[in-house]
Write a structure and sequence with these properties.
Elements lengths: L2 H8 L3 H20 L3 H26 L3 H23 L1 H22 L9 E10 L2 E10 L4 H4 L12 E8 L2 E6 L14 H8 L1 E2 L14 E7 L4 E8 L6 E7 L2 E10 L5 E9 L4 E10 L3 E10 L4 E8 L16
Length: about 325
């Protein structure tokens, strides 16, 4: 029964305590001064430290230095435990650490902004991402009503995007994060004129002779506009997918092709509709933008004017059901 006390007595606690203190100081310093601290800690610092401990443990075991081995092993466990706890709370620790150091200057900058109708005073506080992809933006927001305290996620008056997380820094002041690739000036909307027009438009038929394998939503649809203007709307919900319009007159199709909707990589057309009165084409493109975050974009294309009128990021849950295959011609 005396084995455990004997082992404890053999452990030198100097090294574990030093590791605990240095790990805490190093990680907190990185959190405050680098937005990529989590990445650096997880993929650079932690592997190097763990590898160093493993090598030292092997050496201590080979030399049969049991006290040194136990001290190193406990130190490794301390490092892993503290690292895990700090990384799980990285955003909160960074926000409060920065606020402690910079709050006076930040408050002055935000409060000096002119008031905007129905928009909270704010400033961009931190942006992370890689080559324009997977951008995550944090904002410092002044919320006089403290509405973010009750429900720190969802939609709020004065904020254009749905909130992923909100951290209360002090009374009226919050660090707010939106979803990946959303920022204050570019949020998916649930209400917009283009959504109403898209919902009211008529489904155009799918391709009569599908050519894509495996089967997907595909269009190669001739349409006749006023004055006999004949166009063919083509595209598919597939890699590289976009909607193009081929122009001709009567039965004479020329080689002119215009791009009506191209949302980029991984966001492909999934629905196409027509407002015959205005000769406007509506395209819904949906997918995982950059292979990371889901996105939906609506396009409004003027068939006669041969130009893109507008495009808008929208919230997919606020849109009508997509046209079923087999839809009759408008």
């Amino acid at each position: 029964m005396s084995a455990i006390p004997e082992v404890v007595e053999k452990v030198s606690w100097n090294l574990p305590l030093l590791v605990a203190a240095s790990t805490t100081i190093a990680f907190l310093s990185l959190f405050i001064y680098s937005p990529y601290s989590g990445f650096l800690c997880l993929f650079l610092i932690a592997p190097v430290v763990c590898l160093t401990f493993v090598v030292l443990l092997v050496v201590a075991a080979y030399r049969k230095r049991s006290q040194q081995f136990l001290s190193l092993f406990v130190s490794l466990l301390v490092f892993l435990g503290i690292s895990d706890a700090l990384l799980k709370n990285e955003n909160i620790l960074r926000d409060h650490g920065r606020w402690l150091l910079e709050s006076r200057q930040l408050k002055a900058e935000v409060l000096a902004q002119p008031s905007a109708d129905e928009e909270s005073k704010h400033m961009e506080w931190e942006v992370t991402g890689f080559a324009g992809l997977a951008n995550n933006t944090a904002y410092l927001v002044f919320d006089p009503a403290d509405s973010l305290t009750v429900h720190p996620t969802g939609g709020f008056t004065g904020l254009p995007c749905k909130v992923l997380s909100a951290d209360r820094l002090e009374h009226h002041w919050y660090s707010v994060r939106f979803y990946t690739d959303e920022d204050w000036s570019d949020c998916p909307v649930t209400k917009a004129e283009i959504i109403d027009h898209y919902e009211a438009a008529t489904c155009i038929p799918f391709s009569a002779k599908p050519s894509v394998t495996p089967h997907t939503r595909e269009w190669d649809t001739p349409l006749i506009l006023r004055g006999g203007l004949r166009v063919i709307v083509s595209g598919a919900d597939m890699v590289g997918g976009r909607i193009v319009v081929k122009y001709g007159y009567n039965d004479q199709i020329n080689n002119r092709v215009e791009v009506a909707a191209d949302a980029g990589d991984y966001v492909y057309p999934s629905d196409v509709r027509l407002n015959a009165n205005n000769e406007l084409l509506y395209v819904k493109a949906s997918g995982v933008a950059g292979g990371i975050s889901h996105g939906t974009i609506l396009f409004e294309y003027d068939l006669r004017g041969r130009r893109l009128v507008r495009q808008q990021r929208v919230a997919n849950d606020g849109l009508p059901a997509e046209c079923p295959e087999g839809t009759p011609s408008p």
